[in-house]
Amino acid sequence: MNQTFAVEGMTCAACAVSLETYLKASLPIQQIAVNFPNQSVAIDYNPEETPLELIVKKAAEIGYTILTGAESQTLESKEARDQKTLKILKNKLVVAAIFTTPIFVISMFFMGQIPFENILLFIAAIPVIAFSGSHFYVNAWKRLKHGQSNMDTLVALSTGVAFVYSAYVTFTYNILPLFSGDETLGDATSTHSHLPASPITNAEYPLSAISTHIPHVYFESATVIICLILLGKYLEEKAKQKTASAIRDLLKLQPKIARIIRNGEEIILPISEIIPGDLVKVLPGDTIPVDGKIKSGTSHINESTFTGESIPVSKNKGDLVFASTINLDGNLNILAQKIGSETALARIVQLVENALGTKPKIQEKADKIAGIFTPVVLSIALASALFWWIAGKELLANINYHEFALTTLINVLIIACPCALGLATPTALIVALGQGAKKGILLKDATALEQLNNIDVVVFDKTGTLTEGKPQVVHNHWFNNSVFQQNEESISLLVQAEKLTNHPLAEAVVKHFETASSTLSNNNTQFLATADKEFQTKTIAGKGISCKIQSNNQNQETEIFIGSLPWLQDTLAQNILPEQKKIIESYIQQACTLICMFTSTEIIGLIALKDIAKPQAKETIAQLRNRGFECVMITGDAQATAQIIAKELGISRFIAQALPEDKLKAIQQMQSQGKSVAMIGDGINDAPSLAQANIGIAMGTGTQIAMETAQITLRSGDVCQLLHAFDLSKYTFNTINQNLFWAFAYNILAIPIAAGVLTPNFGFVLSPMIAGAAMSLSSITVLSNSLRLKNKLS
C-alpha cells in the first residue's frame, strides 16, 4: 500500500533525512520518501506486516507527528497547519528578540556598569532558553536517545552549556552572597571590575580558584545564537509557505460550479459532483471546469495556462479542451472525460510538488556536516575533561587540575559553537540578495547560487521569455477593392469592428492602428466620418467578425469579413490571386498570424501579427554560448514557427509543440545524461519544468506560480539579467565556500587549544571568556569576508 501523509515537526531539510533514515532502519518499509517543502511523507508499506499505528509511533519517538486522518490531507487543513507553524515561529522569534536585545547591549557596551547585571541577564535569558529555544533541546534529546544528531543537537549543546555555566556563575558569585549578608558581592563593581576576588573560600566555591576575577558569563552567546537561528527558520518557513500558497492558488483556477445537462435539463452543480460522461455547457467568458471533448459548438480557447502561448486556439467539434482554460467567444457542450485530481491542471500541481520534493538544499550539507561534527566535538570535550581529570595531577603544575578539566569541557563546547558555521551561508546570501535586488535579480535561497554555478544547459521557454509574449502588428498590406476608395476607410472599419471583441489579436490591431499616427489621422479614426455609411457587426465563433455595411446614398448593403486565414481560404477558394498568395506565403514563412479583411469575392487587406523577440535576447544567447553554455529553446508553438524564432535568435537546438509534460520530460532527459539544467520560463505551463530543473528562473513579468516555483526571478523580465545572475552565483558561491572553510579551520585550530594541548609545555590556560571572544572573532571573520562580496558585485 502506497500512501501519503502530512507530517508535523519538520523544521529543516535535515529533519526529512532523519525521519526517512530512522523509519527505514527501524521498520520493514518497502519505500519511503519524505518531502520537506510539502511537509509530507509517502510510504509504501504492508499494513499486515507494518501497521500504520507502529509507523506513527516510531516517528513520534524522534519528535515527528504523522497525521493519518483524511481531513488532514485537504487544502484547508494544510493551510491551517502552515499558518500555525509560522505563528509559533514568529512568537518564539519575537520573545527571543525582546529579551536578547537588552542582554546583547548590556554585555557588549555596559559590562560592569549596571548593578546586579548578571542577575538581570540571567532573568532575561530564561524566556529565550525556556520558551524560544525549547524545541532545540527537546529535539536534541529525542535524537540523542536514538543515537542521532543534527544542527539542533549542536545548538542545544553549545547554548545549553553556555547558559548552565553562566547560571552557575551567577548563582555562585551573585545570588548566594546576597543571602550571606554581603550585598556588595552582587553589585556590578564586584562582578566585572579588577578588584580583589571574592572572599568566599575555594573550598566552598572551587571555580573561584581559576581566576583572580569573578568568571565571565555567556548569556549573550546563548541567546543571540537562538535568536539568529530562529530568524533564519522563520524566513525559510515563509518562503516555503509562499511556494505552497502558489500551488494552492493554481488549484483555485478551477471553477467551483458548472452547468450540466442531464436528461435534457440544464442544472448548476459543484464540480465535485460532475462524473465522467456528463455533458458540460460552457458559455463565452467561462472557465472550462473539466478535461473533455467538444460535443457541439465552435470557439476560440485561451490555453495559455498549459501552452504559455497568448494566441487563442480555434476549437471545433471533437477537439480536446482542458480544465482552467478560458472559452472566449462561442457556446460549447463538452463531454466530461477527466475531473478533479485526474485533470491536466491537477497533474501540473502534482508535478510541481514532486519536483520540489527532490530539490537539493545547501542546508542539507551543513546539517549532514553538523551531524558528524556534533558527536566529534562532544567526544573531544568529554575526552579532554576525562584526560585532565586523570592525568592532570602529573602534567599540570600549580593548577587545580580538577577545575581545569571542567574548564576544558566548557571551553571546547563554547568554542565549537556553530555561530560561524551558521553565519557562513546567510551572511553571504544577505549581501547577494541586496546586490541582486539592485540589479533586478530576486533570489529565493542559497541553493540557487550553488546550483547556478554548476549549470551546463540553459533551457528557454519562448513566449514571454525570449519574446515579448504578446502579438504585435508587424506588417499590413492593402489591395485595391470595390468597397473602399481609400485604405484609411478600410482601416477605420477594421479598428471599430475589432473594438467590439476582446480577442487578443483584435486588441493588438486596435493598439497598433490607433497609435500609428502616420497611418490614421485624428480626423479619420471614426468610420462614419470618412464615408456616408453605416455598419452592423456579428461574431462568427471560431472564425471572426462579419460586418454588414449599408450605404445611405446608394441604399446598397455589403458584407465584409474580418477573421482567420482558413476562413478567407474557405470563402474565396480559387479567387485568391497569385500575387496575393505570394504575400500570404511570405507572412507565413515569417511565423506570422494573419487577420484577413475580405468580401465574398475579393481580399481587402492582410494584417500580419507576430510575437517578436525581446531586444536583448539574441545578444544574451550569444554571450551564454561564448561562456560555454548549451542553449535550448522549448515552446508550445508549431515546428515551423519555432524553427524561425530559433534561427533568428541563434539557437541551434529547439523543441516545438511541447505541453507541460513534454517540457518536464525534456528536462529529465537532459539530467539523465549527467547535465545540470537551468530552466527560464514565465507561465503556469512552465512550473513543473521550473521545479524539476536544477535551477528554475522565472521572468518577473510572468505568472505568480512560475515566480514562486522558481528559485530566481528576473524582476524586469529582461532576459539579459540572466548574465548578471550567473556572475552573482559565481562570486557568491565562492564566498560561501570561503566562509565554510574559515569556519571549520577556526574549529580545527581552536578546539585543540580549548582542550588544553598548550598548557603542559607553555602554561597557557584558555579561559571561557577568551573562548567566547575567539568564537566571536571567527564570526567576525566570516562576516567581513561576506561584506567583501559587496564590492565584487557593485
Assembly of the depicted chains:
single chain
Categorize the overall geometry. elongated
Helix content: 40-55%
User: Average pLDDT, to the nearest integer?
Assistant: 78
Strand order of the largest sheet: 14-26-25-24-15-22-23
Q: In words, what does this structure look like?
A:
The protein is an alpha+beta fold and 794 residues long. The two termini are 55 Å apart. The strands form five sheets. The chain has a seven-stranded mixed beta sheet with strand order 14-26-25-24-15-22-23, sandwiched between helices. Strands 6-5-7-13-8-11 form a six-stranded antiparallel beta sheet, with no helix packed on it. Helices cover 52% and strands 17% of the residues. Mean pLDDT is 78; it is low at 184-213, 355-360 and 517-532.
Task: Give the key terms.
single chain, 794 residues, alpha+beta, seven-stranded mixed sheet, six-stranded antiparallel sheet, 52% helix, elongated
Outline of the structure:
By secondary structure, this protein is of the alpha+beta class. β18 (544-551) and β19 (556-563) form a beta hairpin.
What's the helix and strand layout?
Blueprint: E1 2-8, H1 13-26, E2 31-35, E3 40-44, H2 52-61, E4 65-67, H3 75-109, H4 117-132, H5 134-145, H6 151-180, H7 189-192, H8 219-251, E5 257-262, E6 265-270, E7 279-282, E8 291-296, E9 299-302, H9 304-307, E10 313-315, E11 320-321, E12 326-327, E13 332-338, H10 344-357, H11 362-395, H12 401-415, H13 419-438, E14 441-443, H14 446-452, E15 457-461, H15 462-466, E16 472-478, H16 487-498, H17 504-515, H18 527-530, E17 533-540, E18 544-551, E19 556-563, H19 565-572, H20 578-589, E20 593-598, E21 603-610, H21 617-626, E22 630-634, H22 639-649, E23 653-655, H23 660-672, E24 677-681, H24 687-692, E25 695-699, H25 704-709, E26 712-714, H26 721-754, H27 759-762, H28 768-793
Parallel strand pairs: 15-22, 15-24, 22-23, 24-25, 25-26
Antiparallel strand pairs: 1-3, 1-4, 2-3, 5-6, 5-7, 7-13, 8-11, 8-13, 9-10, 9-12, 14-26, 16-21, 17-18, 18-19, 19-20, 20-21
